[in-house]
Amino acid sequence: MTSPRKRIGVLTGGGDCPGLNAVIRAVAKSAIFDHGWEVLGIEDGFLGLIEDRIRPLAPCDVSGILTLGGTILGASNKADPARFPVGYNADGEPVFEDRTRQCLDTLDRHGLDTIVVIGGDGTMTCANHFVPHGVNFIGVPKTIDNDLVGTDITFGFSTAVQTATEAIDRLHTTAMSHHRVMIVEVMGRNAGWIALHAGVASGCDVIAIPEIDYDLAIINDFVKERARFGRRFSLICISEGAKPRGGQQTVNKIDPTSPDPIRLGGIGEQLAADIERCTDISTRAVTLGHIIRGGSPIAADRVMGTQFGHTAIELIAQGQTNRLVVVRDGAVTHAPLMASAGRQRLVPLDDPTIAAARAVGTCFGDIPAHMPSRPQADCDKLHAS
What we know:
Radius of gyration: 23 Å
Largest sheet: 7 strands, mixed
Strand content: 15-25%
CATH architecture of the largest domain: 3-Layer(aba) Sandwich
Number of domains: 2
CATH topology of the largest domain: Rossmann fold
CATH class of the largest domain: Alpha Beta
Oligomer: single chain
Number of helices: 11
Structural class: alpha/beta
């Protein structure tokens, strides 16, 4: 038995992320096949509501997109309707306007009952702005950073870790061949989940995350000791938000028109220069940047995206409103829409992955790490015997 006929919308806010199309596909097909509803795609996040860029989504429109990265609807991380940038004043400062009324008119014009919003904390905050106006939302949390409070994991994270791991694996051989320290900087803002998991998966010797300030002297001593014991190369995975003890995060750019104006980046190059200057060991840095946000989602994110999209539709069918689809203790469930807004889920210092990494000799730059008990040449003789 189908639910009363509805017309729902779906939008993707914030940055792109592997698995977005899996959610869009599941939302559209579940709504159409299971409930006979109409589904409209809102283009470029909330900008589509401001500019009335909305189109119907039929099953054929969302077929064949499961494996695609990005989003077929487009995304925008600067289209906050309550604070929409419209230009600059004579002093060069950004000017903002409230475009809430235009969005409400668009919603009325298309007769949308509920909107499925796919995004991070900024997107959920934008959605919550409309709740007092009687607009219904179901949120689906998205970010490669895995830093949303209220859910154990977000789709896109696993693909980002896989991509970063494969990149570090490729750098392993060039580091070994040239006896270098190779530093790989990854995204994550103030949370070190990507660096931690990619660093462990690729066997990095040093992992630097925002939650643990690193001591340059400890890292320098560590790579020098590795060289003394015959390990003439080292791999370091560093999160863009990491910083030295007593120092500040490295800012790449400040964009006053963005909801998150401070853009981090450059710490990898800074650390490379510091290590080479202090140790005379050839050191190179690679910034993966948006590479880990693009490309086809791995199987785990395709499955999670499908589960999230289907759950969003089931919540609407049950009459639930302003809820957020989440994963808790391995099960897909839901929480209040604003459960993740305004907060970040950081890596706890007692995280078992950190403990496991330390146990196998990984250095986090805060305390000296385990080193081999005998020179590498002796180890090679032992293995050969």
